[in-house]
Amino acid sequence: MKTPLAFLAFLAALMLAHAAEASEPPVTDGLAVSLDATDQARIRQAASLPPLVTGTPLDRWLDGRENAPPARQFAAQARPVFHALGGEAYVRFDGKDDSLSLARVRELSPELTVFVLAAPAGNPGNFSALFATAEAGRNDYTSGLNLDFGPGATDRLSVVNVESAGASGARDFLEPGRNLAADLPFGPFHVFTVRSRIGEHGNEVFLDGVLLGDRTRLESNLGLDEMMLGARLCSNDPNQPPFAQGFFKGDIAAVLVYKRALSDDEKDAVEKSLLDRKPALNALVSGASGHALGPVADPP
Question: How far is CA 123 from its chain centroid?
Answer without folding.
Answer: 16
